[in-house]
Amino acid sequence: MRYLALTLLLLIGQSVLAQQDSIPPRKEGDSIRLQEKDTLALRQKDSVAVDSMPAKPKRRDSAKLQAKQKDSVSIRDYKIISYYGDTTVVDTTLAIRKDYIYNYLRKDDFELMPFANMGQPYNELGKSFSSAPYYPRMGAKAKHPGYFEKEDVNYYHVPTPMTELMFKTTFEQGQYLDALLTFNVSERFNASVAYNGFRSLGKYRYEEAQDGKFRTTFNYVTKNGRYSLRGHIAAQEMQSEESGGLRNKSQFEDDLPDFQDRAKIDLLYTNANNRILGKRYFLDHQFKLVNHKKDSTDNSPTTLAIGHEFSYETKMYDFEQTQQNDAFGQDPFLVPIEDRARLKTMFNKGFVEFSNKTLGRLSGSVSLFNYNYFFNSVLFTDEGVIQNKLQGEEIVVGGSYRNRIGPLYLEGSVDYTVVGELTGNKFDARARYTLNEGNSLLGSVHVSSRMPDFNYLLYQSDYRNFNWQNTDTFDNIRTKSIKFGFDSRSYGLLSAEYSTLDNYTYFASTATEEEIGLGQETAFVRPFQESGTVNHLKVKYEKELKWRKWALMNTVMYQEVTQDSQVLNLPQVVTRNSLYFSSDVFKKAMFLQTGVTFKYFTSYNMDAYNPLLGEFYIQNNEELGGYPLLDVFINAKVKQTRIFLKAEHLNSIFSEPNYYSAPNYPYRDFVIRFGLVWNLFS
Questions:
Q1: Average pLDDT over the chain, rounded to an integer
Q2: 3-state secondary structure of 499
Q3: pLDDT value at position 288?
Q4: CA pair distance 59, 66, nearest whole angstrom
Q5: Using CB atoms within 10 A of its CB, is residue 5 exposed (0-12), middle (13-18) or buried (19+)?
Q6: What is d(CA 651, CA 563) in angstroms, rounded to the nearest whole number?
Q7: CB burial class (10 A; 0-12, 13-18, 19+) of residue 552?
Q8: What CA–CA distance (Å, rounded) separates 388 from 450?
């Protein structure tokens, strides 16, 4: 009911909202990722006049003027601006990539393996080490794929109100809804309100999951363009029951009729829950001290600006269990189990930026990062004292540079910590060279040094085995990565990334064979740091082949890991191939795409999942994978509405039940799901 009420509220609000004059187009970022995904103009009946009218237009010219105004608004005027300033436009087309991102994360999950229920963790099939955040995060990484970090929140620039609704069925007794309303309430002020939520009971018992994620954003630019402001507020809660996986694998793998109903399968525990709760306030503004334009058509004036970025975030991770379970160890400190980790961070960044058409954009900054990661009490053990908090501040100086020199685009940034113990340095450089209209060369370099996430350094639990402090024994993770790519309209996208990691940090179990046989492997999971160097190579190729109304979309990834100890496990080959047919039907009233998607990854020592920590950990006892995933889909587009119908994991009907998302956690069985994405323009 709350999803229905929210949907009605958004629709009613859109219909009564008075639209003001159009906002002048905000200067788009110089990023190489600037795209125009959809150049189709809105239908005239859905268009809104936004051009400024003369003070006293002549009566005989009013009809022509209104017609001109209606034709002046196109889908390209509805812009999405990322945290980094990259700009895309609202895309109402239907393509195979829309099918790939029609999921809980709303992004391509090619390198991820989802669990059986929506909102549960994703096992990683591929890794990239060039995009790690500079500051350590709280941890519980397996619970964060759907969490909106500040870099994940978008801002909007629209001439008229726009609503986007995404609906999708889940797994038993629930639905998924992602609703967005964006509008401008004055000439230069844009705002948005969004809610993302779902509930899914799941096919197995004790795996219910639900989310509620609210975001509101605003951005403002003065009439003369000297002062700009943007910000957002985000409140998020993600919670799920934790079953621990199968108690008896034979109930699943033997394919017995009694257990075709997955709710009858016995699970390890029935009384555990974990939760992520986060609130964030973000503000970013700048003022141009110098804004010299040669004329009104100069899109790259010489400017000198000062700015400030601020964010304050509180986050909490809970694990609760009403009774003790041997899977996490015997003789806990307290029962019921109520583990709670908290993190409060405040980030301030002041910067000065100079921009010139010839010299490019150059900026320098000073940042202050305050953190407080804490538990309820100090713990005294036989090995020593485990503190209840890590608290301090990091002072970082940095700079960035962007410029376009003919066909060459350059972008780089550097950060160096002058005060603090959590971080060291980071250097990023990216380049794109345009050979011609359809071919480009890409390259990037990443070098960084930072401590691992907070839960590696300090953790406390009511279970005795999950208490540690490694602030004096763990060193900075040192990462070096280099990446090359060739992006061609004719030949596809080929990329290769090579990374070296020193002091690679991971979770692993120290359980003996006897303890593993008793099902106690999870109880002995602890953080470790590898003394040797880990080398990772990833090569990825994407290409779509078309013939008349048929198309074949191929994505193939190859990985190779060299290491002294087996601490990084990844499949060697991952492939996804979609064969589909596209055509207009019903006298072009509907655009239809239907086909089949095949996904496969080679068997490997798939990471295991620990629900108490909300983390995956290394295991080298069992190889999983090596099975295909076959989906059949029928997608359609009617005006600005995209409809999706998919039969997921169709081959599970006739194949052996040996498909897992992680050790002890089966992947989902055959299921039919449907939904839609609907854009409304006022």
A1: 89
A2: strand
A3: 95
A4: 11
A5: exposed
A6: 36
A7: middle
A8: 22
SS percent in the chain: helix, strand, coil, step 5: 10, 50, 40
Collect all residues with Cβ–Cβ distance below 8 Å to 90 and sequence separation of at least 6. 37, 38, 75, 78, 79, 80, 162, 164, 679
Beta bridge mates, 675 = 168, 644
Q: How many CB atoms lie within 10 A of CB 525?
A: 25
The number of residues in the chain equals 682
Specify the pLDDT at position 517: 79
* Three-class secondary structure assignment of 398-438: EEEEEEEECCEEEEEEEEEEEECCCEEEEEEEEEEEEEECC
- CA dist 442 and 484 (Å) reads 6
Q: For residues 299 and 145, give the distance between their C-alpha atoms in angstroms, rounded to a whole number.
A: 38
Rounded CA separation 445/489 (Å): 24
Asked if 602 and 125 touch (Cβ cutoff 8 Å), the reply is: no
Kind and range of the H or E run holding 638: strand 628-638
- Asked if residue 527 lies in contact with residue 505, where contact means CB atoms within 8 angstroms, the answer is yes
Tokens of 119: 């909102």
pLDDT for 68 = 42
Asked whether 525 and 617 are in contact (CB, 8 A), the reply is yes
CB atoms within 10 A of CB 384: 9
Quote the tokens at residue 317: 């991770």
Six token digits for residue 128: 């990239």
Identify the weakest region by mean pLDDT among 19-33, 155-169, 302-316.
19-33
